[in-house]
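Q: Got a minute? One more chain.
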Amino acid sequence: MNESVISIVLADDHGIVRAGLRALLDSQPDMRVVAEAPDGPTAIALARRENPTVVITDLSMPGGGMETIRSIASLPNQARVLVLTVHAEERYLLPVLEAGGSGYVRKASAHTDLLDAVRTVARGEVFLDPAATKTLLRGYLGRVHTGDESDLGEVLTEREREVVKLTAEGHTAQQAAELMALSPKTVETYRHRAMQKLGLANRAELVQYALRAGLIGREADLV
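A: Always. Here it is, folded:
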């Protein structure tokens, strides 16, 4: 397969849903669905066998959930896990990131967000739709932060803080670069430095850390 093509394993327990999603994804010149799974164990096995770029998985299918995300994210091929689900409650969002998920798309907005989400996580970015991002941020407003997370401002430079903030808000490197009047490569450099300083392994952890640290915490940001 052409290396520029994003290979995808599609996991959902409803065949008609998989058929619709496959038609949408396969219509894109830079995407190809290489396998389908009706449950979590099959999704894990296919992710191991097919070595896909992205695994799109339903959160509530049989044998699915956080353990499926965790298992796929820990495979040597480092496939990106994009969660597609009907859930939008806060209690589902952070666990997805903690389990190693790289993105979260609600089924209600899949027709407008899915393609962008696939391309975003394939680049190694984190994708959260606006509704999910606002839900996460509201969940942390007013909380008391302890430990190293309260020292975020002392650890990072102003530029690094801004990159972490934009990442937590769901911006891609390209979008952050435009907002900061920098090149995407420079944004990636700041992000990499921030991750090294904070001891974080991936961008999902960076989003989680920024939220816990209260780096984004003004109610005005959520309206």
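A: The chain is about 50% helix and 15% strand.
Q: Perfect, thanks.
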